[in-house]
Design goal:
- The chain is mainly β and 1015 residues long.
- The protein is built from 13 helices and 61 strands.
- It has a nine-stranded mixed β-sheet with strand order 25-26-31-32-29-28-27-30-33, with no helix packed on it.
- The longest helix is centred in the last third of the chain and has 23 residues.
- It is elongated and about 140 Å long.
- It starts with 34 loop residues before the first strand and ends with a strand.
């Protein structure tokens, strides 16, 4: 005889009492003598399950004595967790009798399924489990577990399943929406090997009221009721139907059946035919009446037996019929007809590559329900725009990967009838504003009445998409400190301010079929103007189309508009032929050259050699290269970069992402640039002592006619710098010295762990490393450069991989460096050099020391790259020949970063004191054997104050062919002699002996300038 024992809570208790073991002395991972996890289910409430609303964990006492537990917890870790586990439920104090089960409810993935059977413990803090793979532990305290497989006497039981990286022994099999994990022998088995102890089966939670299962008892153990139910009963509206349900129990008689949940008028159970004996089958009809309205009705049927046991099974009753599109859409987040076959009528408003949109031309007048519906066909639809169609299919809530919402659509179409042709639907006029709920207009034809701004062009070539917003969206940490209320508010505003203009293709836009008007038309790439581009910052009007929702470029999801007529574009952000900024006496630029490699991925190089490779660390192979795939791509890349650098026309240029192959790549680039200018305009700064072990490095080029290097280049090879910064001191024509430091900090991609993980504050990955690099730059390298130069004027440039107000830049600002883009660009607009996920910000910086800041007269970004679509870049990968033909040999889209340009007006290191002195010269003596002339110059201080040395005589307009043999040096192209390094008192004279060389025996003529200061 089966005997059921339940523990009933006393007055005032919040949960059912259950038993957990106390006072364990067994070692970690030993077979539990009493309490174990006996069943797990992690898909509760998920959209693809019909079982229960909540995840659950079932505990079982396999021992011979009751146990009271106090201060225990259940804990959950993901399949890959190696740090702290992510879920923890503190359990109330309770007692479990031998052979008794306890059911503990966890969180829910949704609604619509049946509730768990009672009695059930509901912890104050539950957790969501994966429906397939993870780790669950029963713990004797509430200390958070850590590690893949935590051990210790506090671990009462551990179950790892699916692909989990930890378990007792080998992990148990994976669960699913329809499968739970069961410990063998009703919970009695415990070999310390999860793969041996556990198997899968249909979810069947047991509670403290379920029959006990005494482990090791000689009496037969109670067998469960086994229901046999179909998953669904499909009915057609207006017609009744039924399905037979069965249940049996090996050692008892099944004699009862009821609808446990989901019952509605029109659904009932017929008369039960009870089992005639133990092990016999009971049967009952689940019946749906003709009066049932169209819709989906999830039910749970409960069978009982003569031993007081029970078991449940889910059945979904679906009734198909006719409904209007607004009825199908409904006012809620999901359709009331979800997973139901239904017929509806509408006018075809637009066709896309795998379906079409229909709309109720009259609508229902309810602003909370959409009048449109997408019909998914999977292939090119055969209906025509303007057809009035009656279509029958299954309504589903489509949820793209990563989406937080669903999209109501019809699929599995079983019938399509064209009732009439030539119909039209009037678009709904709407103004798109940030935060509006476009679900109201899902699949409807709309006319966007306000102009929107293009915010991203990156996915135009491979997806036919442009990201639109009201105005231009600025990255939150580009304007505010991370984590501040202002930054959080801007990030939230940006997230709600997005509408993607699509092209009705869900693949790369196909090339046009010739003949076509021009290269742009032949490419098949939408929205390009006749100049072959569309730029972020341009505006779009006349935007008429249907509202769609789905995947967009970058792995995200968004509302989209599929246009039914050509939008109108305005070039609100025109291209500039060159950067515009005030004129100074020195111009410095920072340019990311997007992996400019003279060695290619196919093993060839810029000189036609084959079998080459790129060095990373200790390996040299073609796969280490990051730039052009082959010579044709390289020529396109090279020409664009040369065009950009030539147009910038800077005196000093810091380069990022150039191949780290000694000076080979930078030397090649300089030669190509000089060939383009027609002169030996540029030279490169020889590499410093260390350039790191990355495939790319930073480099520097300069105009020898404008500046001269002082000393050699410096770098900081500290281990924190994966790409060491490079510094060079220069002297300008007026004698002023300044130093440039080129940087390329750690990328935001490829997240590290711990502090280098994406912490969700807007700074993305590896921020901790960038902070350390900035600290090293401010605390060590800049002081080293200043000391070596003997001059405090420093300009820090480069790709810092940090936006304007992120931690690394804030640290450098606090160290005294002045942000020139905030100073000169912010007053008139958003400073930006890079566009990511449709938000603009600057990763490329110009930071001046306090002494140099006063000598900066302008700074700007030249928007040649970030605003331009990638489809027009040098790359030929995954582009049709027609798309490749969009390439132009110009500066635009030569990289993904915009160059930053700074104008300096450097104060001279010397003063012209010609007007303060008198200069008299002696007659010249001729040496006919040496072809020289010699004489003296006397300088008299005619001013009212002493003249502080050093004092120099500069020989200007010297007779051609004549040189100053006794010159001290050259100032530009003019020789000079140092007269005195001391002070010349008022009225004092200083005499200088000069020898002139004149091989052609010409007369000597010149004009003197007298300078004081350092040359």
């Amino acid at each position: 005889m089966k005997k059921l024992v339940a523990t009933i809570p006393g007055p005032g208790r919040l949960t059912v009492l259950a038993a957990l073991m106390a006072g364990f002395a067994a070692p970690a991972m030993a077979g539990s003598p009493d309490l174990v996890i006996s069943q797990l289910y992690g898909a509760g409430g998920n959209a693809n399950t019909t079982f229960f609303t909540h995840d659950y964990i079932e505990i079982f006492n396999r021992g011979s004595a009751a146990v009271t537990a106090e201060g225990w917890s259940l804990q959950y870790g993901s399949a890959t967790s190696t740090g702290a586990w992510s879920g923890k439920s503190a359990l109330p104090t309770f007692t479990v009798e031998p052979g008794q089960y306890i059911l503990i409810q966890q969180q829910s993935g949704g609604t619509g399924q049946s509730a768990l059977p009672g009695p059930v413990i509901v912890p104050q803090s539950g957790f969501n489990m994966s429906g397939t793979t993870g780790k669950v532990a029963l713990v004797r305290d509430t200390t958070t577990l850590s590690g893949a497989t935590p051990t210790g006497e506090n671990i009462a039981d551990l179950v790892g399943f699916g692909t989990a990286n930890g378990a007792e022994g080998t992990r148990a099999p994976a669960m699913s929406a329809s499968l739970a994990l069961f410990r063998a022998n009703g919970g009695c088995a415990d070999s310390d090997d999860n793969s041996v102890d556990f198997a899968t089966g249909a979810p069947a939670p047991r509670t403290s009221a379920s029959a006990r299962n005494t482990c090791g008892a000689t009496v037969p153990q109670a067998k469960p009721i086994v229901p046999v139910c179909p998953a669904s009963l499909a009915l057609e509206q207006g017609k009744p139907g039924a399905v037979l349900l069965r249940a049996s129990d090996e050692d008892s008689i099944v004699n009862g059946a009821v609808i446990a949940s989901g019952s509605v008028p029109g659904i009932s159970l017929g008369s039960l035919v009870a089992a005639s004996a133990n092990g016999g089958s009971a049967s009952v009809n689940l019946q749906g009446a003709a009066s049932l309205a169209s819709g989906s009705y999830p039910l749970v049927i409960r069978f009982t037996n003569n031993a007081g046991q029970e078991a449940t099974c889910p059945v979904n009753v679906s009734v198909s019929g006719a409904a209007t599109i607004p009825q199908i859409q409904g006012a809620g987040a999901a359709s009331p007809f979800a997973n139901v076959s239904v017929s509806t009528e509408g006018v075809v408003t637009h066709k896309v590559s795998n379906g079409y949109f229909i709309q109720d031309a009259n609508g229902d007048g309810d602003p909370s329900t959409s009048d449109g519906l997408f019909v998914f066909t999977g292939t090119a639809p055969t209906v025509a725009v303007g057809d009035l169609v009656r279509v029958k299919g299954t309504i589903v809530e489509y949820k793209p990967t990563g989406a937080l919402r669903t999209y109501t659509e019809m699929k599995d179409v079983t019938g399509t009838d064209v009732l009439a042709s030539g119909n039209s639907v009037t678009p709904a006029n709407i103004a798109f504003v940030p935060g509006m709920d476009l679900a109201r207009f899902e699949a409807m034809l709309v006319n966007i009445s306000n102009a929107l701004t293009v915010n991203q062009t990156n996915y135009l070539g491979d997806r036919g998409e442009l990201t639109l917003s009201v105005g231009r969206r600025e990255t939150a940490t580009n304007r505010f400190r991370p984590g501040t209320p202002e930054a959080l508010a801007l990030a939230a505003s940006n997230a709600s301010n997005e509408l993607v203009l699509d092209d009705s293709w869900f693949i790369a836009p196909p090339a046009a079929t010739p003949p076509c008007a021009d290269v742009v038309a032949c490419s098949g790439i939408p929205y390009l103007g006749q100049d072959g581009t569309v730029r972020a910052g341009d505006t779009v009007s006349n935007l008429v189309g249907v509202v769609d929702f789905g995947a967009i470029g970058g792995g995200r999801t968004a509302f989209k508009i599929q246009p039914t007529m050509a939008p109108s574009f305005t070039r609100s952000n025109p291209r500039l032929a060159a950067p515009e900024l005030p004129v100074g006496n020195v111009k410095v630029a920072s340019a990311n050259v997007l992996n400019f490699f003279t060695t290619f991925l196919d093993g060839a190089d810029a000189w036609g050699r084959t079998g080459q490779g790129c060095k990373v660390g200790s390996t040299t192979r073609p796969s280490n290269c990051r730039g052009a795939d082959n010579m044709p791509e390289f020529v396109r890349q090279r020409d664009k970069i040369v065009g950009e650098l030539k147009a910038i026309d800077a005196d000093v240029v810091g380069l990022m992402e150039i191949q780290n192959n000694d000076d080979i790549a930078v030397d090649y680039l300089v030669k190509q640039l000089n060939a383009a200018t027609g002169f030996e305009t540029y030279a490169y700064v020889p590499k410093p002592a260390t350039t790191g072990t990355d495939a790319i490095r930073v480099a520097m080029i300069y105009k020898p006619a404008k500046v001269a290097p002082v000393g050699g280049a410096l770098s900081d090879g500290d281990a924190v710098n994966n790409r060491p910064p490079m510094a060079q001191t220069f002297k300008a024509a007026n004698g002023a010295k300044f130093s440039v430091i080129v940087n390329h900090l750690k990328s935001k991609g490829g997240c590290g762990s711990g502090a280098n993980a994406d912490l969700g504050d807007g700074q993305s990955c590896n921020n901790a490393t960038r902070v350390l690099q900035a600290q090293r730059l401010a605390g060590y390298f800049i002081p080293q450069v200043v000391a070596a130069a003997g001059d405090p004027d420093v300009l820090v440039i480069g790709d810092m991989n940090a936006h304007g107000f992120e931690d690394p830049i804030h640290l450098l600002n606090q160290a005294g460096l002045v942000n020139q883009l905030e100073r000169f660009v912010r007053p008139s607009g958003i400073p930006y050099s890079y566009v990511f996920d449709g938000e603009s910000g600057y990763l490329d910086h110009a930071l001046a020391s306090a002494s140099l800041d006063a000598q900066v007269v302008g700074a700007t970004e030249w928007h040649t790259n970030a605003d331009e679509p990638t489809v027009i870049d040098y790359n030929t990968d995954a582009k049709s020949a027609a798309a490749q033909a969009l390439f132009k040999n110009d500066a635009f889209r030569s990289s993904d970063h915009d160059p930053v340009v700074v104008a300096l007006n450097l104060a001279p290191a010397y003063a012209d004191i010609t007007s303060s002195v008198a200069v008299t010269g002696s007659g010249l003596r001729v040496d006919i054997f040496k072809n020289t002339y010699s004489g003296t110059l006397t300088i008299t201080n005619n001013s009212n104050a002493p003249i502080t040395g050093p004092v120099h005589v500069v020989f200007s307009a010297l007779t051609p062919g004549v040189t100053v043999a006794t010159r001290t040096g050259m100032l530009g192209t003019e020789p000079y002699m140092t007269v005195s390094n001391g002070t010349i008192p008022v009225g004092a004279k200083v005499t200088l002996s000069v020898v002139y060389s004149s091989p052609a025996r010409k007369g000597v003529g010149f004009v003197t300038k007298i300078l004081s200061g350092s040359l």
